[in-house]
Amino acid sequence: MKPQVDLYVRKSKRVSEGTDTLSIRAQEDRGRRWAAQNGYDVRKVWRENESAFKAVERPEFENALAAVLTDEVPALWCFAMDRFSRKGARSVIDLLDSGKRVVFDYEDLDTSRKRDRRWIIQRAEDAFEYSDRLSYNVRTTKERQRTEGKWLARPPYGWTVDKGRKLRNNPKTWPIVERIYSEAEAGASTRVIAKRLNADKIPGPAGGQWHSATVRQIVHHPVHEGWLTVSIKKTTPVAYLHDGKRVRCAAEGEATIPAEKAARARRVVSGYQVGTKPDAPRRGRAETTMVGLCVCTGCGFNMARSGGSLMCNKNRAGIECPAPAVVSITAIERYVVDAWSARLGASDPEDALLAIVAERYAALNAPQETAAISEAKAALRSVEQEARKLADDYAAGLFNGALRNHFAKLAADLDLRQTEAEERLSALESPRVDITFLLEGYARQAYDNAEQSTRRDLVRLAVERVTVTKAPYRGARFNGAERVRIAWAESAA
Hints:
Rossmann fold, alpha/beta
């Protein structure tokens, strides 16, 4: 019976064919010829499409080495020393001392021959030196290309790469990128944007359906502002910094998303800011104060008008609700407005609710000034959130080694942006408003004297929502204290 040998074959550059690539198959064919010529049967072929130098896991290599070291197989064949390892002499010393047989075909070296020991160590060191020099050259070349704003990877959605590795707008997909930013800035959620794109039969970046996560990635990618990016441990790409400054990768004259538009879109999809174009009132909008405020406790759905009553909208649509609420519009309005008037009348100057009422009233009467303040606050919250995420990434070890310098640059950029956001907010003065007409018992009078549309706005200054429970039995007399819970405004957002 012939002795057995294992073959270890490897291609260092990752390719789509994986271990079926031509060079790997060619190595295997040569290994099988060697086995036949030297009286061996091939027991197993260990195939790998990984680097031999970088700190990556190589399970096939480890298993192949373990098989020969534990006498599971008497010999291991490898095409060449640099296919085996590029980590220098330390990768072969233990193997040489063990007396196990590993054959390096290209160099005609064999660990079982004592005369080859020095040459094996020398070739291992040569492979290490070559790999180290190659790695240095690649790093320095890429670094130089990045400082010149050259895009070194496959172009992102919306772009193409020219011969100079600069990005140019893709005429087919760039309009989609602009549409996504515009809809996000206006207030559409990433889910709604994806749904609209699919409805218009627009293929996603991979050729299939659009998803919320895909839309979010596009909105948050700095490349659409024209900036070169890097990815930190497969996280969201961030702008590449050279000497503390961002590097432009878009070719001269190519369209990009304006910085303010991009920042606003990101804040809106992250929930820090409302859109620039909230939905306009729909035709046939209810003319009662309570519609849009009341929620059925049984299912959490809004309550809709049905004649002179409000009823669970889910139940109204023919969908089962475990405890559908129904209440007289007159009764619920009287109860809520009385409670609203009493709450404002009993408030003292330090009551947090009054600050919220004042800010919301200012938004109704001075929308441009309050919009600027809201946007400045949203910008500050966004930067603070980025700073927290950066700190979390650092604590998780994503910036170890050479990436520490990049962390320092990102942190400095965030510090500058936070200072600018704080200065912008402090420079804006809140518009002066007078809400004394709602205090000291005058709220009810102001409500009664107002038009219906104003009544709705006045109540919503202080009331966030009203939850209504099902009556204990059909025809039961309305008891607001038992059936109604009023949620007062808790923030000025």
